[in-house]
Design a protein that fits this description.
Ferritin; 12 helices; Ferritin-like_SF; DUF4439; DUF4439 domain-containing protein; signal; Ferritin-like
Length: 367
């Protein structure tokens, strides 16, 4: 019997070669992966969207104003000018805080370049003069008013409109304290509304320069994108102010009476205009009343002045609320109305506050 042939052992070396190749590949792959991770670029700062640009601009302008006012207050003697400067610094610091402060992504700062390190050796500029700070206030107020009109977020629009109004008032106060003429908004506010300073400068006790603010409303009683409920509340606030001024006019005489009558007529016209814009004029939903509650002691001139201040402040609050409810690009008249109502309240002795028209932030007076 023939013996079976022995199996050929030729495949074993090939199997061992494959095993060695697999082990080598397993060792190389982690090293390659490590190399890929090392070549990944570091994270970069995210690009700010339009909303963040408005917020950051509001903060940056506020911090610049605060720094300039602080520097100028340090070299100005006690008096009306220094009082205003301290308010500019304090109010602006509050504005920056309310807008969220300086953005910090948490990412490490990039390594300084040679040119950057060289630039840090420059001598800082001295304190600006009052005229320069006044121009900054006017320009920054105009920029903020424009941002309030166009920003897409309603609550931020309300805050920025309040900041614009505060800066506008501070500019008026600094102009009066220094006897410097208030300049027009400059190149920094190119294309922005000027805060309606001319109308506000005409404000006198008992007179509300509010008719001009809403005179440019769209024909046909339309205000695209504006919240109806907010406009109804605005019409009601104007109507209550008109009634209050009519009561005041009946209790004063001469020039004071003429101013109160004029203010009542202006508020009545604004109430009619906003009620028509909201679509409630002459309808069952019109909330305006024949009479409104009044405080006691109306024979006291101090009570009358306090009544007018409260009425104008109520109109300012209603304008600010309407700014928040309005669509971007449709708020210019509302922002101007906020400014003018606050100016009228200030003309009757209302305290200067950091956030006009925003009562939840304006309760703390400074200065």
């Amino acid at each position: 019997m023939d013996r079976p042939a022995a199996p050929a052992p030729a495949r074993r070396p090939r199997t061992r070669a494959r095993l060695r190749a697999a082990v080598a590949l397993a060792a190389v792959l982690p090293l390659a992966a490590c190399g890929l991770r090392l070549e990944t670029p570091p994270p970069v700062e995210p690009s700010p969207d339009a909303l963040e640009q408005v917020r950051a601009r509001t903060v940056a302008d506020a911090l610049d104003l605060a720094a300039d006012a602080d520097a100028l207050a340090a070299v100005v003697p006690e008096g009306p000018e220094r009082t205003v400067l301290l308010d500019v610094a304090a109010f602006s610091a509050r504005h920056a805080e309310a807008a969220g402060g300086v953005y910090d992504s948490g990412l490490p700062d990039p390594a300084p370049t040679a040119s950057a390190s060289t630039s840090t050796t420059t001598t800082p500029a001295g304190a600006p003069d009052a005229a320069t700070l006044l121009a900054e206030l006017v320009d920054d107020a105009a920029v903020a008013a424009d941002d309030a009109d166009t920003v897409t977020d309603g609550p931020l629009a309300r805050l920025v409109a309040s900041v614009a109004t505060s800066r506008d008032e501070l500019a008026d106060r600094l102009s009066a304290a220094t006897a410097l003429p208030r300049p027009a908004a400059g190149a920094a506010a190119d294309g922005a509304p000027d805060g309606s300073a001319d109308e506000a400068d005409q404000a006198t006790p008992g007179v509300t320069p509010g008719a001009t603010a809403s005179a440019s409303s769209s024909p046909g009683g339309e205000a695209p994108g504006t919240g109806t409920a907010a406009l109804v509340a605005l019409a009601l606030a104007h109507d209550e102010a008109a009634y209050g001024y009519e009561v005041v006019a009946a209790r004063v005489s001469d020039d004071a009476r003429a101013r109160a009558v004029e203010a009542a007529a202006r508020h009545r016209a604004d109430a009619n205009r906003w009620a028509a814009t909201a679509g409630v004029a002459g309808r069952a939903g019109d909330p305006r009343r024949a009479a409104y509650a009044l405080p006691g002691g109306l024979d006291d001139p101090a009570v009358l002045d306090d009544l007018v201040r409260r009425l104008e402040s109520g109109v300012a609050d209603a304008y600010a609320a309407a700014v928040a409810a309005a669509a971007p690009g449709s708020r210019a008249d509302l922002v101007a109305g906020l400014r003018q109502a606050h100016a009228a309240a200030a003309a009757r002795g209302a305290a200067s506050v950091p956030f006009p028209g925003v009562p939840e932030l304006a309760t703390e007076t400074l200065g």
